[in-house]
Amino acid sequence: MSSSQDPKSPKSPKSPKSPGGKAASPEPTPAPPTIVALSVEESREAGILPGAHWTEQPLNEVDDDGASTIGSVASTTASLSSSIFEYRTIHGRTYHGDVGNAESWQPNDQRHVDSMEILHHALMLCLDGKLFLSPLDKKKIHKVIDIGTGAGWWAVDFADEYPNAEVIGTDVTPIQPAWVPANVKFEIDDCNLEWSWAENSVDFIHLRIMMGVVTDWHSLFRNAFRCARPGGYVESMVSSAYFQSDDGSVKKGSALEQWHHIFWEAGKKLGRSFKVIEDDLQIKAMEAVGFVDVTVKNIKVPFGIWPEDKRLSELGLWWKLALEEDLEGYLNYLCNVMLGWTTEQTAAYCAHVRKEWADTNIHSWFWLRVVYGRKP
């Protein structure tokens, strides 16, 4: 395994390795666990300040750099069962319907789709304009799967770049565009279930920003290993929820310092970890199931316009625009359902997060990690 610099985020106990390389025997799909919000004692033990803390803190006016002016992109879907469109509504936001045992924490309404479009651009900037880092041979790429495709922008862009490849994007919710290149199609599927594609049939499997989605990373990559053809690649990109600063400007008890406590503890309640980088889940699972030439690239991403370097400032701005486009959407389910906060408390926390993101004296950054490997 090769690697760039190692993230210096807190580490958790190592997870056990599981057998690799073979398809798991079909098992009954477990029902999603009943979610019980954290108690006051559990929140305190996890280092999470109570929701009421944020409604009690004074909040001064801050300048908005224009995130709300980013235009929306119309997104519709066709030829899907009408039952798929029966969304759940939680605290005024809509989420996917019943697909497998999925328990998505991100909304699927237009505001969130707009945010994901901006995030797609930010993620490509992190890769210097590239869609992936795997060393693909364009002549050998015939079938590609984009797991957790979201709004589908990656799949569409890849299909444009590889017009002779069949590109399939999967997700639990139908928010992808209707008008796409002829070599793209979207399917409703839960990646945590047994994959239905044939063994040794896929040339490239792509997974991006799957934190808080995957129930078992070893099982996920066992599916990928089985479906990938010999010589095919799998690539996974995730981001950390841990905001850091090199100069101590992200202070203990601040909204940004609390961010990772909220996501990490909510992920424990969901049974879908947000500590993918901190626990090296991609690397351990890929190597355990049999992928070789596993390569890791860690990217230090600034948040906001504070860096003096023009490229880094632009990168930080796009991340800020993406998350501020629907900050409440990223936190609504986790804070309200997992932590038991009221809508008003979540809104107050969001306001404090925005205030700190707008403060150029706070030099926050986080890790982004790309891991890819080859099936021998």
Automatic annotation (TrEMBL):
Q: Give the start-end ranges of region Disordered.
A: 1-38
Q: Which GO terms describe its biological process?
A: methylation
The record, for Pfam families, names: Methyltransf_23
- Sorted UniProt keywords: Methyltransferase, Transferase
GO MF entry, a single one? methyltransferase activity
Q: In what ranges is there compositional bias, type Low complexity? A: 15-26
Q: Which family does it belong to?
A: Belongs to the methyltransferase superfamily. LaeA methyltransferase family.
Q: What is this protein called?
A: S-adenosyl-L-methionine-dependent methyltransferase
The species is Pseudoneurospora amorphoporcata
